[in-house]
Write a structure and sequence with these properties.
276 residues, ten-stranded mixed sheet, 10 strands, 21% strand, globular, 11 helices, 43% helix, alpha/beta
């Protein structure tokens, strides 16, 4: 198993180049084809605006979009060329960014996006990462809105519980786990009977059979919530990647009552690979 097609989200935001840099390194590491996609939502002015200004405003907006896409294409091309990457493809779409990324993710092994930040100028909705993660059916690597990432996947923390989402995330991350220097599997407050005889033992054996060097730890009686416990543990381990399932509970329940996914998406300090 390997990543052979990596899709990276392109936008005019300040953090886009950081995202592309990480995607380039992953593409080189896995000998993968890199696809950059810039999607812009179609301009749909209210009827009264069209009545007042007619087609001129549509044409002006089309020129703005074309200029923006040409600029981002130039920056993307320059960055991948400087890195010497050859298996590269540029795509654009006039469509809702979530819908466009979801469609193109169907034909990729890994999707690379960024944490949303209204001040970044990325022009995507605030809930872009979670909507894409829920819809794509592919592992989504989300980069924090601040910082640089000299490595991604050398020191990995796996958040484990025996859920469908966590199982998918671990399986989707195997190409990264196999190349990691250290992999720590962490089960927080495991419930009796859920994990088998010894919490984390079975997933540790499963990964070991895939050639992953893994250490398993259980955390009982944490006084803080699971999300913050994971962030604290990641900091202790100097982890450069967290692997976890997204929205094991319903999304509505997590946003109303809180949950690990919500905490991580809001407060991530290291890249996170999520699957749903």
């Amino acid at each position: 198993m390997s990543y052979k097609t990596i899709l990276v989200h392109i936008d005019p935001g300040k953090r886009c180049s950081v995202r592309v840099e990480v995607a380039i390194r992953l593409a080189r590491q896995h000998d993968a084809h890199l696809v950059g996609l810039h999607a812009l939502a179609p301009f749909e002015p209210p009827g009264y605006v069209l009545a007042e200004m007619g087609p001129a405003i549509i044409e002006a907006q089309r020129l703005v979009a074309a200029t923006e896409m040409a600029r981002t294409e130039g920056e993307f091309t320059k960055q991948v060329s400087a890195a010497g990457l050859r298996n590269v493809e540029w795509r654009t779409a006039i469509d809702d960014p979530v819908d466009a990324m979801t469609l193109h993710a169907r034909y990729a092994d890994l999707v690379v996006i960024g944490q949303t930040d209204a001040a970044d100028g990325s022009h995507v909705p605030a809930d872009f990462p979670e909507r894409l993660m829920l819809a794509a059916g592919r592992p989504v690597l989300i980069l924090p809105g601040v910082g640089s990432f000299a490595t991604v996947g050398k020191r990995i923390l796996v958040a484990w519980n025996p859920s469908r989402e966590a199982t998918r995330a671990v399986t989707d991350a195997i190409p990264l786990l196999q190349l990691a220097d250290t992999v720590h599997v962490m089960a927080v407050n495991p419930k009796a009977g859920e994990h088998g005889t010894v919490a984390g033992a079975d997933i540790g054996l499963y990964l070991a059979r895939h050639g992953v060097r893994v250490e398993v730890k259980t955390d009982h009686g944490a006084e803080i919530d699971v999300g913050n416990e994971l962030l604290s543990r990641a900091a202790d381990l100097d982890a450069d990647l967290i692997v976890m399932g997204g929205y094991g509970h319903s999304r509505l329940k997590e946003w109303v009552l809180g949950g690990a996914t919500r905490t991580i998406l809001e407060s991530m300090t290291a890249p996170v690979l999520m699957s749903h």
